[in-house]
Design brief:
- The chain is mostly helical.
- It has one domain.
- Helices cover 78% and strands 0% of the residues.
- It has four helices and no strands.
């Protein structure tokens, strides 16, 4: 959240781009830990933080 809030205070596009980068990083780390599969991407652990990232960016 620390990397998302300051850019979103500057402007919405900056906040959304920071949230997108945080989502990509989260997905990479999740797949690195559990292995890349549809089950990993479809699990609750992937969309819940992603939703939170974009909620904070708004």
């Amino acid at each position: 959240m620390v990397s998302i809030v300051p850019p979103s205070l500057i402007s919405v596009p900056f906040g959304l781009s920071a949230a997108t980068l945080a989502t990509l990083g989260h997905g990479f780390l999740l797949c690195a830990e559990r292995g890349f599969s549809i089950a990993t991407i479809g699990s609750f652990d992937f969309p819940a933080p992603t939703f939170l990232f974009f909620l904070v960016a708004q």
